[in-house]
Amino acid sequence: MRKITRGLLVVFLASLGYGALPIFAKLALAEGVEVLPLLAWRFLLGSGLLWIFVVATGRPRPPRGRRTGLVLLGLLYALNSACYMLGLDRLPASVATLVLFTYPAMTVLLARLWVGERLTPRRIAALALTTAGCALTVGTGFGGGDPLGVGLVMLAVVFLALWIVRSHGGFAGLPPISATAVALTSTAIAISVAGLATGGIGVPLAPAPLLLLGAIGLFSTAVPITAFLIGIQWIGPGRAATAATMEPAVTLALAAAVLGDRLSAGQWLGAALILAGVLSLRLEPQSDIPPDIADGHP
Q: What is d(CA 57, CA 49) in angstroms, rounded to the nearest whole number?
């Protein structure tokens, strides 16, 4: 398989996990789990599962000289996650998703400035298609929105774009699973300290919230973050961010299946535009990828 095909497939796997996160999070919040405890246990479980896998399979660890960079990336991810979840707690999931998915445009621009990705006509067209698809998929307005909630999600967009672009170099050449475990451990520690300083990280000891936290830790944290970081190395941060715009379609499909939400004709059209944008990335000639990006190095 071409590297671009493999990269898009792992980004799609990441989109499945990330797309389920708003559903799991809304259900957990409804069960009485607070925002910071939810985030703390998300990353404690996610990083713990990755370390169990690393130890059980004897995978190599990142060299000591690269761990500081991974810790800093983990702290940046903590800021992104906290801002997004605090915003999600104040907004309808559709509005939060719409605001969040302005991040591919910022990521593409930062990738051009920092790692030299080309702004080819095909990428610009793919970005336009996927952005329009996101707008149609999650809705076309901010009705019911909270200005502070919108501001928090916009701040999460800035942190997320920075994290994606810097991850391309920060994780390059490292064993992906153990490197992700190091970064997520720092994320977990930072958020746990914040939670303990503001009231604790306790959660209701009932089956529903515990199962939801377990699902968030495994399916919406450990698996998708690792897959997305691998995708960044294979296809570059700009293309990975654009391909990840499949996520809103995944969210709405899961919402329809789990919560009984119905998709409108406009939302189905949005999903089709997202698919068209991602397919245009799949068909991009290999020659359009700079050699350093094609080889997975910064």
A: 12
Two tokens, residue 166: 């810097």
Query: What does the pLDDT read at residue 145?
Result: 54
- pLDDT of residue 297 exceeding 50: no
Cα separation, 65 vs 291, whole angstroms: 26
DSSP annotation of 245 reads: G
> Which whole number is the average pLDDT over 17-32?
90
Q: How many CB atoms lie within 10 A of CB 282?
A: 16
Residue 82 has pLDDT above 90, yes or no: yes
Q: Write b or e for each residue in 46-66: b if 16 or more Cβ atoms lie within 10 A of its Cβ, otherwise e.
A: bbbbbbeebeeeeeeebeeeb
Distance between CA atoms of residues 123 and 127, nearest Å: 6
Question: What percent of the chain lies above the pLDDT cut of 70?
Answer: 84
Nearest-angstrom CA–CA distance, 222 and 225: 6
Q: pTM for the complete prediction?
A: 0.77
Q: Distance between CA 212 and CA 42 in Å, rounded?
A: 10
Per residue in 240-250, pLDDT (tens digit) is 877 777 787 78
User: How many C-beta atoms surround the C-beta of residue 257 within 10 A?
Assistant: 10
Query: In terms of DSSP H, where are the helices of the chain?
Result: 3-30, 35-57, 64-88, 93-100, 103-114, 121-138, 147-170, 176-197, 207-217, 223-235, 237-243, 247-258, 265-282, 291-294
Separation CA 276–CA 22 (nearest Å): 24
Cβ partners under 8 Å of residue 91, min gap 6: 99, 144, 145, 146, 149, 150, 153
Distance, first Cα to last Cα, the chain: 22
- 3-state class (DSSP) for residue 122: helix
